[in-house]
Amino acid sequence: MAVFDFDSQSGTYGPSALASGPFVGLQGGAVAGLLTAEIEAQAAAQGWGSAVSAAAWFFRPTPKARLRTQVAVVRAGGRVAVVDNTLWPDGEAEPCATVRVTLARERAIAVPAFGGDAFRDVDPAQLPLRTTRAPHGGPWFMDAMEVRSGDGVAWFRLTVDVVEGAGPLARVLGPADWAHGIARPLSNVLADPNPNLTVHLFRPPRGDWIGVQPTTRWEPARGLGMGRGALLDVEGEIGCVSMAVALMPLPKPVPAEA
Predict the structure, then answer these.
(1) Handedness of CA 257, 188, 194, 223 (dihedral sign)
(2) How far apart are CA 167 and CA 51, in angstroms?
């Protein structure tokens, strides 16, 4: 089982209920993970190296429908490759999202390691469990993860892969997409969707747990904000995440049928 299942006959992906976001459409981190996983799979086959960053843009809500993707190589060769992947609902002309992934071939350098805060004796499984229900009351992408928190860090462990065989960066994007919401200053007052998502990794995560140490900033007079955070595994820092935020009133609840 995966959040997105690939149909080899049609060449499209079918999202499960676990791909849903909190309001309309699919969760951005799930969509970005799908697109990045495809690129990481091609990178492994082509020898492009490790995915070190992903920049995703969400043009409009992605519906729960059959989805098609198209990979486009911007540059390949040398040490660095840049690859785009774009997603559409099958049969539609207007895309919903795109991601640009930067990949680099690893090369050992004979100098001491520098940077990256170290964490000692961190066992996220011993921290309090954090359960968050979707505003619509149904399954959503958060249900594909075990979430625990403590000392200002939210820890995520994917219990369902985004796609079968997803790579390291694709696994990180789902947890990273929650950075702007973990430390939001108010709850159940405004919706704060992020129209983009940028993640950088200087090393892949070791183990199943991904930590997000978040910071959120809002400017209500402009209706804009941002989220950012350090990304961690149980051994220490692995990268960072940032995104813009568009503040808007909460959607009105759908009235119950008589």
Answers:
(1) positive
(2) 9
> Which two three-digit tokens encode residue 199?
């993640």
* Pairwise CA distance, residues 209 & 200, whole Å: 17
The rounded distance, in Å, linking the Cα atoms of 120 and 127 is 15
Structure tokens at 110: 């004979």
DSSP state of 91: T
Percent with pLDDT over 70 in the chain? 94
- Residues 181/228, Cβ–Cβ less than 8 Å: no
At 122, which amino acid appears? V
Torsion over CA: 182, 240, 193, 19 (sign): negative
Strand partners, 190: 249
What's the distance, CA 121 to chain centroid? 26
Please state, in angstroms and rounded to a whole number, the distance separating the CA atoms of residues 74 and 49. Answer: 15
Q: How far apart are CA 129 and CA 13, in angstroms?
A: 31
> Which of the pair, 174 or 134, is modelled with greater confidence?
174
Distance CA 188, CA 236 (A): 33
Q: What is the pTM of this model?
A: 0.93
User: Does residue 123 carry a pLDDT above 60?
Assistant: yes
The pLDDT tens digits of the residues spanning 138-154 come to 999 999 999 999 989 99
The yes-or-no verdict on residue 29 having pLDDT over 70 is yes
